[in-house]
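I am writing to request your help with a piece of structural work I have in hand. What I wish to show you is a protein chain and, alongside it, a tokenised description of its three-dimensional fold. Could you please explain, in whatever detail you think fit, how the structure tokens follow from the sequence? You will find the record immediately after this paragraph.
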Amino acid sequence: MSGQSRESFPCREAVVFAVRGEIDIANAARLCAGLLQATDRPECGCLVVDLSRVGFIDLSGVRALMECYRILTREGRHMVLAEPSSPAARILDALDMGQTFEIYPIVETALVHTGRQRYEEGPFTGVSGAD
């Protein structure tokens, strides 16, 4: 899994959206809505989804990420995944999602092509509040 093999383009502003907890059928739609809401400003050209604190993700979670990716791509925006936890990396690898997403090993490498960054804490998963 690597985002380095793809051509990148400079983004004006990137939003880093940290996802934590479990992503499953019970909250996948809410996650997608939260991701799209985080990018709801014209200057935001890139969404970096930080998956480092994801304890579990199922197929519905991957579908939610893909739906957000499709929507943002249609709008001319960029979405990448960064720092997937072991459970997230396993399912992304098993589904060969590196063919669809740019996946970076750490958040900082995903931000190299951006001008400005903004950090969003994503309480839109199975765990809300503190870890």
User: Anything to note?
Assistant: The two ends are 27 Å apart (CA to CA). Confidence is low (pLDDT under 50) at residues 1-8, 123-131.
